[in-house]
Amino acid sequence: MIRVHVFVEGQTEETFVKEVLCEYFQEKDIYLNPILVRTSSIGKGGVVSYAKIKPQLDRKCREDKTAFVTTMFDLYGLPNDFPGSDSLPKTSDPFQKVEYLEQKMGQDIGHTNFIPNLLVHEFEALLYSQPQVFAEWFDASVVSILQGDRNQFISPEHINDNPLTAPSKRILKCCQEYDKVLHGSLLAIEIGLDTIRQQCQHFHQWLLNLENI
Length: 213
Description:
Strand content: 5-15%
Shape: globular
Number of strands: 5
Distance between the termini: 11 Å
Largest sheet: 5 strands, parallel
Number of helices: 9
Order of helices and strands: EHEHEHEEHHHHHH
């Protein structure tokens, strides 16, 4: 069995790995182990500083060389000390941007068993793969609002990372009861992995990379 340690930045992503990805990959004889990043000696969750998460990634790569290490961090809101953040290419293409940052992170970690990955632009973008599922948890009127947002962009991953219009901000604007930890994974489960992969090409490519280890 191939083992993959997946560093995540929050409880929602941790649950998503456990409830959505683990079962899928177990059928392929790949075991995923979600690890919530530490922000301090007592705190967990959030990529507030790359300097704090790099030692965790480096340590896991070194101590378990027979396994792989990957990440599930949001592109949106990355800290200023993240590798490549000061030399980003001037482009409006989110995929060029994220691939550049992933390449820089991979070079900085420098281990052959490390697979860098960032979500474009954040976890909530995946939920735009099928806005209709929100009707099962919230007022049905929010579906048309979210679908309207989705229709403005090429894909869910193109929904921008502006502090006011990032995917999570858009969802909260029309679904004030939305709780990421409570609803995030439930909505993703309802949407289904196949639909998310069809809609979100960068996320799909990450899973392909894991499948082809």
